[in-house]
Amino acid sequence: MTRHDDDPVGPNALDRVTWALRRAELAVQTLKEQRLRPLGMAAAHYTLLISVHAEPGLTGAELARRLNVTPQAIASLVARLESRGQLERREHPRHRHVQELHLTDAGREALRAGDAVIADIERHIAESLGTDETARLRALLDQVNKAVRDA
C-alpha cells in the first residue's frame, strides 16, 4: 500500500488482525449462506434457531442484544420463522406483555438440518488447518474475545 501524507488510514491497515478477522468472517458467512440456501435457510435463521435452542424462552429484545442486531431485524426473523412453524411465542409466566421464544418440532428439524451443514463447514476448516492448529485458532480467538471485552 503506497502511503501519502493525506492517506485516511495508517500504514499496513490491510494487514491488521482486525481486518484479517473480518475477511475470515466474511468468507465463512458467505459459505454458510451458499450451503444453507438449498435448505431454504439463511445464516441468520440458523443463528436465531440455535440461539433459541441454547436458551429457550429468550425474548426478542434479549436476542437482539446477544446477536448485536436491531430489535426490528429480530422481529422480522421471528415472524418469518413463526410463519414457517419453526418458532413459537409463548406468554412469559410473570410478565404478560413479554413473549418468550421457543422452537417447535419443525424448528428443531430445521436446526438439525442446518447444523449438519454448519458442522460440515467446520470439518472442512478443521481438516484444512489440522487438529493442533484448529485448537490453537480456537484458543487465540477466545483470547481475542477476552481482550476486546477487557478493552
Automatic annotation (TrEMBL):
PROSITE patterns: HTH_MARR_2 (PS50995). The lineage of its organism: Bacteria, Bacillati, Actinomycetota, Actinomycetes, Kitasatosporales. It comes from the Bacteria. Residues 14-146 form the HTH marR-type domain. PANTHER family: HTH-TYPE TRANSCRIPTIONAL REPRESSOR YETL (PTHR33164:SF43), TRANSCRIPTIONAL REGULATOR, MARR FAMILY (PTHR33164). Pfam families: MarR_2. Signal peptide: none annotated. This is MarR family transcriptional regulator. It comes from Streptomyces coeruleofuscus.
